[in-house]
Amino acid sequence: MDPEKFKQFNKEDENFNELKEKFNIWLRKDLMKNNEEIVKFINEIKRKYPNHYDCKLYHILAFSGIQHECSMFDFPGDDSVEKFIEERYSNLNNN
Question: What integer pLDDT is reported at residue 6 of this predicted model?
Answer without folding.
Answer: 42
